[in-house]
């Protein structure tokens, strides 16, 4: 029964990486190393480097997008107000395009007073359990009109992560496809070179050099 040690597998990956790195920079110039081997290692390292750089760029982009979205949310929240209101109708499932209600939320006719002395009656986002006459709190803007609530941190994180990870995945997939194409071309070149070399070596190797068929007769 063969026992596998996790550390050995990790070390093997590092050893292969070192081998490819030495080949790529020309430090491993043994008699069995061919130019095509060096090109293959360079293609592999270039693909991995592009993925790592893309990951670093995605991290920086994520931070920038998060801070920017947080700043926008803070500016928007400064113009929003949570005020008491009285529900006037039965809540209805909100249209996704309706302002003031999140996806899957409910809206109903409600009445509130904001700014002071200014009474407004219009559709606003309310809990699904709020019936006519219920006291709720709704989000309004500086003019007293119904508005959507400020973006939450979880929403900002989810949106940022989706956009950034999607972009990084696209870059990684492009690198993988590019490396696969390059490797296929290098493999064909290696086979062509091998056939060329074998055409030179094969007569001597099989004893057919100089027109002989392997016997002295």
UniProtKB/TrEMBL annotation:
Query: Is the Membrane keyword given for this protein?
Result: yes
Query: Record's InterPro entries?
Result: MT1774/Rv1733c-like
Q: Does the keyword Transmembrane helix apply?
A: yes
Q: Which parts pass through the membrane?
A: 43-67, 156-179
Keywords in UniProt for this one? Membrane, Transmembrane, Transmembrane helix
Instruction: Supply the name of the protein.
Output: DUF3592 domain-containing protein
This protein's species is: Kitasatospora arboriphila
